[in-house]
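Teaching assistant here, posting this on the class forum so everyone can see the example we discussed in section. The complex has two components, and the goal was to see what a joint structure prediction looks like when all of them are supplied at once.
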Amino acid sequence: MKQINTTCIIDDDEIYIFAVKRLIQKGDFCDNILIFKNGKDAIKELKNLILNDVNIPELILLDINMPIMDGWQFLEEFIKIKPKKEIVIYVVSSSINPTDMERAKSYKNVSNYIVKPISRDALFEIKKTFAA
Amino acid sequence: MTKGKPLQNTKDVDLFSFIQEAAIIGTWEYDIETQNLVWSDVTRKIHEVDSDYIPNVESAISFYKDGESKSMILKYFSEAIEYNQKYDIELEMVTKKGKEKWVRAIGYPFFENKKCVRVRGLFQDISKAKNTEIEIKKLLTTTVDQNKRLINFAHIVSHNLRTHSGNLSLLLNVIEEDYSHITENEIFPMLKKASENLNETIQNLNKVAQINIALTESYSKINVYKEIQKNIDSISAKTIDTDATINNNISKDIFLNTVPAYFDSIVINLLSNSIKYRRASTPLVINISGNYQDKYLVLKFEDNGRGIDLGLHGDRIFGMYNTFHKNKDARGLGLFLIKNQVEAMQGNITVESYVNEGTTFKIFLKK
């Protein structure tokens, strides 16, 4: 049975980060949380972690609209890294635009698309897929 | 009136000047040998010159606006004399009193023994129609801009607004979990309800915006034969009245991904045009066929109607408010509309026509 030790949140919205952190901590979801405010910071640090094989997150919750490097650009860069360990990515976005949802599904690294606000139940569902 | 000879009969002259006055169409005539240029009263009026004004070729040309209009009239006028080419062009001019006008300049050369002896022409003030056309083009640009703004609006609703309303409900959830003691009052449930309502309203708003975008460009697959037949049936009253025969020769297994509303409009407009401009003496026959050419499905609408003088009207046939026949219900918008709809679907339209033989339109639609 797999477990989530580290969850990586890539999002520029402070309120969202605050609330998700809270939900994660409360719900006994995982031990560590990595937070990045844009795709560029995230990709840089993830490359390092993967290279040194430490603290590699099992799960990434990825926003689409972000400054500097957005979610799509992040995915394009992430594909190139090819980590040995599987990293599950969920796109978590405010957008209910069908074209965004379809675009997210077109990446085989992306497991699912969650429309914000993310709820405790949604987190619970994600945890369930890991336990399965 | 004999072709190429000056008017002589006074009755003809009266009728002629009446027509000119009523339609704001003037005439002019240029004699090559004497280099005399004669303007009719209406031509003078359009130029806003006195009735005793004597023009010559240079002064006449000097009324046209510098740039495209002047170079066009020089080119067409000299080609008329040199190569026996008639012309029909729309140009900008400035009158004697400094007023800017759009005019339609028509010139017919007359040749004797392979030499041009005379050019006779019409001169029409089309400022009103032209300004309307310009106005409508402006409106079209505005509509396109507004559509873009609507897409932006949909994006703002879908993303920015939802971000905030989403955070609001997320925070309310956190409060509920972490500080449940402050939720035990009558205000908190109302606050939660208000937040839910806000989410729902934004969701609906987004749907409305999405529909409006989709309406302008929703493609779907149609059976071409059936779709055309549907349109033929819808105008059957007209066809029976006029004793017209419409043959739908499209193969029944051709399907097309298209904007159905545009497709119907194109078919209806072409059929109505054929019916409107049929010949009185011959029963109308319209043949519709289709075949593939490269990336396109080419639909052919062929009639045996009055035809259009393309040598004369060729470049203006798809323009706005241009009509080439004397029909009372001719509006000149149909072909303009069709061309825009075809082009909106990245297609193309061509025309072939001969006076008193018929007209063939070809519509190229992406497969």
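For the discussion questions: Residues 22-92 of chain A form one domain. The interface with chain B takes residues 13, 15-16, 18-20, 22-23, 26, 65, 93-98, 116-120 of chain A (CB under 8 Å). Think about how each of these relates to the inputs above.
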